[in-house]
Amino acid sequence: MGGMRRCLLATVSAVALSTGAMAADIPARMPVKAPAPVVVAPSWAGFYIGINAGAAWHRADFTDFGGDTPFAFPRGTKYWSPDEAGFTGGGQVGYNFQSGNFVYGVEADFNYVSNKASITQPGNPFGPITSTTKLDWMGTVRGRLGVTFSPTLFYVTGGWAFAHFEDTFNVVGSIIPGNVDKTRSGWTAGGGIEHMFARNWTAKIEALYADFGKWDGFLTGFGSTYRTQFEHQVLTVRGGLNYKW
User: Fold this and answer.
1) Do 191 and 229 form a contact (C-beta atoms < 8 A)?
2) In a domain, 12, yes or no
3) 119 vs 34: CA distance, rounded Å
4) Residue 48 exposure: Cα atoms within 13 Å on the Cβ side
5) What are the φ/ψ torsions at residue 18 (nearest 5 degrees)?
């Protein structure tokens, strides 16, 4: 009996020692790595409103088509082509849609423009000719199409432009001043870069070219009617700041 008891104790001891050795051979559990945070790309979709400021280069062409009697220059003479730079500032509103990396939408803006040029030239026997052109304000309604790379958007844009011009031409000291005060419409196209630097804020820089076509101005004096043709283009380079919902 005593022998059996000693044999049983020896067997239990051997099993315990073997189990401990096996447990010592099992490697410690590897620490569980936390999942990487999911980065959500910023969305450009939604309504936005903002302000802008920059420079506007106004190019005009004045062409004299004369009248019943010689007025100033030979008929068909393009006698003045000013190219004047001035300040522009205003605001814009728009709405963007987004599909993957493509962003598209519509934007409208309205800007004050400080741009005026004037010249006095030798004219006809009645005296020197003074010509003036002035761009008062300009607006556009445009579509936009772009591609976004994370928080930066590259886009092209184009649509309808409208502006107010004041063109004058007259003989100095005479009673026959000519003045054409007109709001004109035309087309515009351009492009820009916009960057989303905060959840609801973007900054942009863009360039727009606008062409307003040709039109005629008439004045009557000395028993005749005289015609001058006007042509206007505007190049705008400006920076802007938008708040997006």
Assistant:
1) no
2) no
3) 74
4) 29
5) -65, -40
In a domain, 226, yes or no: yes
Instruction: Find, among 160, 61, 166, 56, the residue nearest to 112 by Cα.
Output: 56
Q: Could you tell me the CATH number of the domain that includes residue 135? A: 2.40.160.20
Do residues 172 and 72 touch, judged by C-beta distance below 8 A? no
Q: How many residues are present in the chain?
A: 245
pLDDT of residue 35: 64
**Contact between residue 223 and residue 68 where contact means Cβ atoms under 8 Å apart:** yes
Domain count, the chain: 1
Name the maximum alpha-carbon separation found in the chain. 151
- Give 10-residue mean pLDDT values along the chain (245 residues): 51 49 52 60 93 97 76 77 96 98 98 95 74 95 96 98 91 65 95 96 98 84 73 98 97
Are 192 and 157 within 8 A, CB to CB? yes
Q: What is the pLDDT of residue 173?
A: 59
225 in any annotated domain:
yes
Distances (CA, A) of 210 to 99, 149, 166, 187, 231: 29, 28, 17, 6, 12
Sign for the CA dihedral angle at 60, 61, 67, 73 comes to positive
Decide: helix, strand or coil at residue 140. Answer: strand
In a domain, 50, yes or no: yes
Taking the C-alpha atoms of 181, 182, 188 and 194 in order, what is their torsion angle to the nearest 10 degrees? 60
Which candidate, 134, 127, 128, 153, places its Cα nearest to that of 43? 153
Q: Which domain holds residue 187?
A: 46-244
List the structure tokens of 186. 């035309």
- Separation between Cα atoms, residue 73 and residue 62, nearest integer Å: 11
